């Protein structure tokens, strides 16, 4: 069962520049920056009420984020969901006709 939206991920070209833009938009700075070496990205998180916004920038030209931006431009990349049981939720969504793009 889906409990809530955990965060919304936005693909960006320039993390530093977009951090400044979102600081102006939300009136507050990001609360953390992370490097995710396995994905070849750096991220920053903003909080707006109970909603988290994650900015994701590529650190390498062959990352999924770089390919996404090259194909579609900057914008919403993903919506992360908080669920009770990930395996059960994946199965439920498959049964509802959703296609898993990262199927193992």
Structural write-up:
With 104 residues, the protein is an alpha+beta fold. It is 30% helix and 39% strand. The chain contains 3 helices and 5 strands. The protein has helices spanning 15-26, 64-72, 86-95; strands at 2-12, 32-36, 41-48, 51-58, 75-83. It has a 5-stranded mixed beta sheet with strand order 2-3-4-1-5. A hairpin with a 2-residue loop joins strand 3 (41-48) and strand 4. The two termini are 21 Å apart. The model has no long low-confidence stretch (mean pLDDT 94).
Kindly summarize this structure in a few lines.
With 104 residues, this protein is α+β, with helices and mostly antiparallel strands. Helix content is 30%, strand content 39%.
Which features does this protein show?
5-stranded mixed sheet; single chain; alpha+beta; 3 helices
SSE diagram, text form:
Blueprint: E1 2-12, H1 15-26, E2 32-36, E3 41-48, E4 51-58, H2 64-72, E5 75-83, H3 86-95
Parallel strand pairs: 1-4
Antiparallel strand pairs: 1-5, 2-3, 3-4
The proportion of strand residues reads 35-45%
In N-to-C order, the SSE pattern is EHEEEHEH
Tally of helical segments: 3
Please give the largest β-sheet: 5 strands, mixed
Strand order in the largest sheet:
2-3-4-1-5
Q: Alpha-carbon distance between the termini?
A: 21 Å
Any idea what the radius of gyration is? Answer: 15 Å
